[in-house]
Amino acid sequence: MNWNDIRVLYFRELKSALRERSIVINSILIPIILYPLLFWLMYTGFTFVSGQTSELDSRIVLVNFPAQHEELRRDLANDRRIKIVASPDPLPDLHRARIDAIVEFAPEGQGNFRTKIAYDESRDQSAQARTSVEQKIAAYRQRFLQLTASRLGVSREEFQSFWVESQNVSTERQMGQFVLGLLLPIMLMVMLALGGFYPAVDATAGERENSTWETMMTVGTSRTNIVMAKYLYVATMSAMAALLNVTAMTFSMRTVLAPLGGQIGNMSFQIPLRSLPVIALGVVLMALFIAAGMMTLASFARNFKEGQSMVSPFYLIIILPVSFLQTPGLEFSTRMALIPVVNVTMMFREAITGVFHWPLIALTVAVEIVCVGIALKLATTILGNEDVVTGSYQGSFGKFFKERLMKRNA
Amino acid sequence: MNAPVVVEGLTKTYYDESRGEIRAVDGIHFTCNEGEVFGLLGANGAGKTTTLRMLSTILTPTSGFASLLGHDVVKDPQGVRKNLGFFSASTALYPRLTARETIEFFTRINQYPADLVKERVDTLVERFGISKYADVRVEKLSTGMKQKVSIARTVAHNPQILIFDEPTVGLDVLNALEVQETIKELRNEGKTIIFATHIMSEAERLCNRIAIIHGGRILTCDTLDGLRAATGQRYLEDIFVHFVKGQG
Fold first, then answer.
1. pLDDT of B161 strictly over 60
2. Per-residue confidence at A261, pLDDT binned at 50, 70, 90?
3. Which of A38, A72, A103, B217 has its CA 20 to 30 A from that of A91?
4. Does A19 touch chain B (CB under 8 A)?
5. Sign of CA pseudo-dihedral A24, A26, A31, A34
6. Which CATH code fits A55-157?
7. Cα–Cα–Cα angle for A174, A177, A183, rounded to 5 degrees
8. Domain residues for B102?
9. Can you tell me the distance from the alpha carbon of B163 to that of A80, in angstroms, rounded to the nearest whole number?
10. Closest by alpha carbon to B192, among B208, B215, B175?
11. Which residues lie across from A84 on neighbouring strands?
């Protein structure tokens, strides 16, 4: 390999790419602007819908209301979201959505009562009615008990015996890292795949479509140098998209999640500095793997469009397993460290939250290096094949693998 | 002294699922001398492009031998490419680079001395009359302008051997004549040029020697006068038909 030639070829690829609108949009603008914006819109929409649901009026029918607890009726009536209505036949009315809940009181002796709330879980408005009524009754019950206990001269400690109080000891920064750990790894993978997608197709099928492949094949440098330069260029674009996105998301996360309100508003979304080398290492390894995989598939395409459809399945292969990893309780184990792509995602998640299992990180790196090696070997073999390079090979990757590579090794 | 281009028994076979084994080039022999334009004349599908692709190391020969300035096309493909400028209808330019960037890139990647690259680029821009649009992206140039940039990038590293495969396809008469003039100039500079075409008048006007290729075989190879004497025909078109029909 001649690194000077690779450098000349690499910068040629990069210069061309940065002048191509679709590549600039997909590898630079989308990671920085579009995804944070989409997330913000998504959360805003989610909050809006939740808000709309909580603002719905709850039409309830009270049945056998105990006269001693008139204060509870006042509580219910004073809530502007609750409307107490009358119905001679409440159950059919509930089924027909004319009312949202039936609150039936059954006497239990000594003025006590048991409440049964009938509602329709399939309707948001009905489910909301149930929650509102339950909260009202629970608050009334607490107040009622305290008042009764106080009249009897019994303190809170005496009548409650024990109670539970929860305290979240995690700092705002830790909570922010936890949220980032759930969201960023999958975003990184999506961006790595998206960032490499267009450059991989452009560097292979695009060259064929523009008839520049043959020009390239006659220059005074080895084909290995040409393939290596293209490979590094695709990997660069992939890694750049991921790193730009992670930076943009980190800075915009508070704004993005602000519509959710509550504790999120106070969270600090900062990735620990010592995590950055681990994240960068994972990004580089994944970018190298993705570049080799995508270039291998795209090299069989005769034009850009065909290249896009050939690379799409690989894109899904990268994204699908990762999308199952958003469950908070999932642990980074040895078994997980052996699964390509999944291992890097878990490594990202832990690094973002400031956790480092070095043996698992080492295993992940080793597995990914092997994967990159295999993918790169495959890519150089295919891109060194004259039938593929000249476009005279008419089959797919699968056919080539079976007919040429398997037979050769047999 | 050895000829700059030596071709001996060069063969290329393909396997096609429906048609079986196809011999695109079938054991051809020829040599090209320094400072001559060697014409490869043949109809479409005769084997011209496959031959030139083997000489430029895009394709690997199935059998036979070919060397350019002593570099074997199989054993030393990089050595071949460093000394070769290859131009064909299927060797396009990078649309998003400017004319100047294109020439500079091909000068560098073809191992021209780094400290002389700028000077070389300026010379080529001047020589081929590209100055006015040197900093315009190739995608915005007309066909004629692109053709000039293409020739400039072909000779960017000042190679001793040049291959032109149907260089005037798609050009209007004036642009085609300009390309022919450039090829003549390059010959006069002592370059060895292989010129493949199916246009008889071009071959008549430019070539010192002409090889007629048909069905992957070279049917004859001689100067235009030699071919006239051998066939008794005056026009190259008639000479071509004479050999091809004689083969049939």
1. yes
2. low
3. A72
4. yes
5. positive
6. 3.40.190
7. 150
8. 84-159
9. 88
10. B208
11. A60
